[in-house]
Amino acid sequence: MTVSPFSVVLDEAAEAIEGAAASLGYKTGSVRGAMGASKGFGDISCSAAFRISKSAGERPADIAAKIASRIGKCSLIEEAAAEGGYINMSVKRADFASLVLRSISEAAYGTGLSGIGNGKKVIIEYPSANPMHPIHVGHLRNLLLGDAVSNLHRLCGYDVEVEDYIDDLGLQMVIAVWGYMRHKEKPEGKFDHWLGMVYADANRMAPGEGFRDELSALAKRIENNGTEESRLARSIAERCVRAQYETAANYGSYHDVLIWESDILGGKLLGRAMDMLLERGVARRETEGKYNGCTIIDFNSIKDLPSEFGGLKESVKVLVRNDGTPTYVAKDIAFHMWKFGMLDDPFRYSKFIERQGNGKPLYSTSASGERMGFGNVYEAINIIDVKQSYPQSLLRLVFRQLGRGDIGNGIRHLAYGRVELEEGSLAARKGISEENTADGLLEEARERAYGLIGERLKLGEEEKGRVSEAVALSAIKFAFLKMSPEKWITFSWKWALSFEGDSGPYCQYMYARATRLLEDAPMPPKQDKVCKVYSDGEFGLVKEIAGIWEAVEKSCSELRPSVMAEYAGRLAYAFSSFYESTPILKDTSDDERNCRLALVGGFARAMKMALESLGIEALERM
RNA sequence: GGGCAUGUGGCGUAACUUGGAUAGCGCAUCGGGCUUCGGACCCGAUGGUUGCGGGUUCAAAUCCCGUCAUGCCCGCCA
What we know:
The protein has helices at about 5-25, 50-55, 60-70, 95-105, 135-155, 170-180, 190-205, 210-225, 230-250, 260-265, 270-280, 330-340, 390-400, 405-410, 425-430, 440-455, 460-480, 495, 505-520, 535-545, 550-555, 560-580, 590-615, and strands spanning about 35, 45, 75-85, 85-90, 120-125, 160-165, 255-260, 285, 295-300, 315-320, 350-355, 360-365, 380-385, 410-415, 420, 490. The radius of gyration is 28 Å and the shape is globular. The protein contains 23 helices and 16 strands. Residues about 425-435 have low confidence and may be disordered. Helix content is about 50%, strand content about 10%. It is α/β, with parallel strands linked by helices. Helix 22 (about 560-580) packs antiparallel against helix 23. Helix 5 (about 135-155) links the parallel strand 5 and strand 6 (about 160-165). The chain folds into 3 domains: about 5-90, Gyrase A, domain 2; about 120-275 and about 325-420, 3-Layer(aba) Sandwich (Rossmann fold), CATH 3.40.50; about 435-615, Isoleucyl-tRNA Synthetase, Domain 1. The protein binds one RNA strand through helix 2, strand 10, helix 12, helix 13 and helix 19.
């Protein structure tokens, strides 16, 4: 774990300004909030003089000038100057560079950049794709966001558990099983793709009047534990999930545990959760009227009802229907009680995949198996489509009513916008779930990346394939992740497969250039070798490297991987400018070469961390 | 009816939570740069009343009020 060098400087600068202001008789309070990186006026800047001007009755420019002239000796601040009411400061370049390069070389890949997580356990749920079709580009956004959020939490020192909720019950599953049973031919090809077609066909037929009774009879048998149909449904779903996880593995995405909805229903979890709600008066059992026989939450009985529940069509939410079956929200409440350890763990777990690409097994809830230590977390992050915002706030409301506002606040929803298809495009005609699959996208991207490598590198076929896959993944992942999560995406090939400019491959390319320089260096560079003088180009790169702490912490705490993608792009750009303008190996003295190589080394470490937090591989050759 | 999200040059977007100096970037367009450490590159130019109208402030893309447009959600579906 390391500390942001930039915040060290800002702390020092704020203290110096507060001290100088106090010695002049100004009342400032904390000035830290008025500090920031400066754009073009020195390195850091402070706007406190504007605020002081109110109480002091002097012009901001005069105050700033007086304060700037009073700034004492600082370890990292070179000098201060006033300009237009701002106090601008320049940093001691060599000392700051030394601090930055030392910090980045001490930060551990994957887990040890920031300490804000402090070992707290967090469970992250995604992508929860229905187990009856392949992962398409909409789910892919979810998957990539979830991976990035997980990586960022690890990088901030959280204890991360990655979980996937499999909805193997409900109408879609019934239709899929119905289609499967009617289908005469054997499955062929990748199972999720095959089942997706069968499901789509069935879905077109199922609404027909003639099948209603048949479907509802099938639904009963599927939900009834122990029937042949329930076993068939589970085995179809499991086969589909395995195929989806092949896709996920190709995208470098791995989970810790699968939770099956049928296991939530099959165990005692749900009953105990409902009992707790009834005992504490959060829910009640209706014995008359419209909701006779149901367990409900009555919004009219809740004080200080949040605004989103104000003008509801119905002021009642049903948790358990009069036939005894629970609604989705009831299951989710029970499940979140499990996540936070409010109820004993009723699940048994077995290995679903013995060993994933990350070396760890994937566990799954199952009828038989072992007890494990999943859940019991401090925070639960749910990566779900913005459409589910209402049930998610309902969830938080229920925990507040239970007197567990801490859990309510600990449930965090990353509500990302939908992925649409370009109107009139080939993609749109084929339909989002049938043809625009994550598998197809990767295949297309791989071919394009392969073509781009061409004669550029003398690599063996196998190596060329590996590199083109990594480049393809980086193009796709960067495109999805650089977008603010709440924005809608209109998917197109052009959009998803950018290899130039502000893109994943551009970042990878800069990393590859940097590692080549380090390889070609006559002597291994010393990590913290510092230049005597830093040019603007060199120091610009130092400052961008220093920005990784703020980027990671912000990206993590706000659940916005886009912050990190933007940072990676900026960092790559800073390196590129530096690289174009500054000789490193050629035409340099030993001192210049060594200190510039140290800078290149620092860049490479920061770039690799940034890319890996986005799930992108840092390539040494491409 | 209520709630949420989005609206920034031709297109795609960043900055909005925490107000701060010249609204940053990519694509496209135009003009430059390879006998030079990897051209998936760099430098420059063109292009903006930040949907609209008010308000607060020394200062508003950012905060507040109103308004328009688009999309989503408010079920004994999940």
